[in-house]
Write a structure and sequence with these properties.
The protein has 17 helices and 18 strands. It is α/β, with parallel strands linked by helices. The protein is globular, with a radius of gyration of 25 Å.
């Protein structure tokens, strides 16, 4: 509902009340009670009234419930709609993140399906940018300081939303018993459905925050970028979002060559991999294994899941599954066939994605480097890949490994995603090449996750003091992301000035935006290595 429509309804309601009072009241019955007058920091949603806070030019609402708590009988089920509530609910503080492993223990709560909104304290209707946090499962959620939406909302003239989604075993458990009880004859992908439910909540409520439900751009970084890929692989997403950005998503390949870092799990494999959770939780011999699992404390379920992951040697067992119902295919095929609709996509990565590898995890010499390739790839692919990344071409063996690792998992996957998405709908490829000169990331270059503080202008989280060149990169990224959200029919701007249209990716002339100092258009992505990898392995 538009603002003008809401105002008209309120005026008609008030007129009816005044007429009843002045004209004798007709039948003598009381007229409809006029809607309550809301303060500037309050908003009426379908569930009830939330009270947020006025922060500068923004109206900020934290901890809005977009779905029912996925606890008890709703554990390991699709999200249920949020219930209505009476009175006014406080929305000035973040609510709990979702339950997940964190370092040696666990963190968060199961009652976690909340989102946060940075809107504007005026009546202008704006597009919405929804950001999905990265970090896999290590104690984080939509309250990350690095993705605080205030500056991006103001500079980008947009509404910013962050959110929580179920993680680890709670977001992806697949069991035969869960399939049997499901009306759709499926299981898993609860995290994908959480994101979709949040988009439905925004579709139904965001007009009350002066947002345009027809202009929602879904953005995510790292595991959040992979989640964007997964959401785009679901036909249930059609009509819920209008554009997407995949930042360092590492969304997997058309055909996996190994399971060291799985992004999605084949259906049959998931059934086999997840089955031991029941035994680890002590529920395999129960009369009702699902009821047993649902009666356990969340910490016990998470502990059982971690036992299974450690025994399999796979730290990400509970990923997306291609079940043929919620998720019907892999992300590349989904983009080619526009499973979620004709959605323009920005996709990219950082120049030094592999730079986060600590020295202790790097190969000591050329022999160890070759041995690692052989452990991952069968002959003759191991030798062919070494020919693309020979140690002699890099300052050190560690540098060769870092570049290969970043290309294999992120940079070349981003290029392949752009290829897949560049059919009828425009796709835009980028590379972030600028790093920080001060703070905890000083001198590391454009490492994994550094795109988040550049986009949100949250350098201080990393102790970095930005200079004019950093600000120019931030301006360029903000202009591009918010520009695509604002006008889906036009190529996004990419320069700090907000001018110049970003050329759509074309396999015949691969022009990409390089967010560096200065921001430029390049035609030699990763020095052509991705094309060579593409000939060797199925990316």
């Amino acid at each position: 509902m538009t603002i003008s429509a809401r105002i008209a309804i309120r005026l008609v309601t008030m007129a009816a009340v005044l007429c009843l009072a002045a004209c004798g009241g007709g039948s003598g019955k009381k007229g409809p009670k006029p809607p309550p007058e809301l303060a500037a920091d309050e908003v009426q949603t379908a569930q009830g009234i939330y009270k947020g806070s006025i922060e500068g030019n923004l109206r900020v609402f934290r901890g809005l419930r977009y779905a029912a708590p996925p606890v008890g009988s709703l554990r390991f089920k699709p999200p249920a709609p949020a219930a209505a509530f009476a009175g006014t609910t406080d929305a000035t503080t973040f609510k709990a993140n979702c339950f997940q492993p964190a370092n040696a223990g666990s963190a968060g709560e199961e009652d976690c399906l909340f989102l946060n909104i940075w809107s504007h304290n005026d009546d202008t209707v704006r597009p919405i940018l929804v950001f999905l946090h990265g970090g896999g499962t290590n104690g984080i959620g939509g309250d990350l300081a690095s993705s605080d939406g205030a500056v991006l909302a103001e500079n980008g003239d947009i509404i910013v939303v962050t959110m929580n989604r179920r993680l680890s075993v709670f977001g992806g458990l697949v069991l035969d018993e869960l399939i049997q009880e499901s009306p759709r004859n499926t299981a898993g992908n609860y995290d994908v459905m959480d994101v979709q439910e949040a988009m439905r909540w925004l579709r139904d409520n965001v007009a009350e925050f002066n947002g345009d439900p027809n202009r929602i751009i879904l953005t995510g970084e790292s595991s959040g970028g992979a989640m964007v890929c997964q959401v785009l692989s679901s036909p249930d997403t059609a009509g819920l979002i209008s554009a997407a950005v995949i930042q360092s998503g590492g969304c997997g390949r058309r055909k996996r060559l190994d399971d060291s870092i799985p992004i999605f799990t084949p259906w049959d494999n998931a059934l086999n991999l997840h089955r031991p959770v029941l035994a680890a939780a002590g529920c395999d011999l129960a009369a009702d294994p699902l009821q047993c699992l649902r009666d356990l404390p969340a910490a016990d379920v998470q502990a059982a899941a971690q036992v299974v992951e450690l025994s399999d040697g796979v730290p990400s067992t509970f990923r997306m599954v291609v079940d043929g119902v919620v998720v019907t295919t892999d992300p590349h095929t989904a983009l080619i066939n526009e499973i979620a609709g004709p959605i323009p996509v920005i996709v990219g990565s950082n120049a030094n994605e592999g730079g986060g590898n600590p020295t202790s995890s790097l190969p000591a010499d050329d022999a160890e480097y070759r041995a690692r390739l052989t452990a991952i790839f069968d002959a003759p692919r191991d030798g062919e890949i070494y020919a693309v990344y020979p140690t002699a071409d890099f300052p050190s063996v560690g540098d060769a490994w870092r570049v290969f690792w970043g290309d294999w998992l992120f940079n070349c996957v981003a290029e392949e995603l752009a290829r897949s998405a560049s059919g009828n709908t425009p796709a835009y490829l980028y590379m972030l090449s600028r790093g920080f000169s001060t703070g905890s990331r000083a001198g590391q270059g454009a490492v994994h996750t550094i795109d988040v503080p550049f986009l949100f202008e949250t350098y201080d989280v990393y102790g970095h003091t930005p200079d004019a060149d950093d600000a120019a990169v931030t301006d360029a990224m903000q202009n591009a992301w918010t520009g695509l959200a604002a006008d889906l029919t036009a190529a996004p701007p990419y320069l700090p000035s907000g001018s110049s249209s970003w050329p759509a990716f074309d396999v015949g002339n691969m022009e990409i935006v390089n967010f560096n100092s200065p921001v430029t258009i390049d035609t030699n992505h990763r020095e052509g290595r991705c094309a060579l990898l593409r000939d060797i392995i199925t990316l």
